[in-house]
Sequence to fold (103 residues):
Amino acid sequence: MLLVNIDYIPGKEFEVLGVVKGNIVQTKNLGKDFMAGMKTLVGGEIVGYTEMLNEARQIAVKRMVDEAVEMGADAIVNMRYASSSLMQSAAEVIAYGTAVKFK
Fold:
């Protein structure tokens, strides 16, 4: 599945199938919270959270692609990520874009 964050694919004509999305709500675990708290004392990257969000983005993209495959799409254009905090210990990551079929 071709994923691009622009609204066209050079040299390709396509028909729009519709919006597709994939999301996940990820929670922190006690170990990561403790280590993050310790890291705030000295500063720097909180690697545990970075890894958690990278994994969440990968899962969200897979779910988006699965939805596009079900629609018969060849590509997803204008693909984007968004995230939000749902509560103190949980965040949502969503991947979304427009599923298209090549002509």
User: Anything to note?
Assistant: The longest strand covers residues 14-27. The CA atoms of residues 25 and 92 lie 4 Å apart.
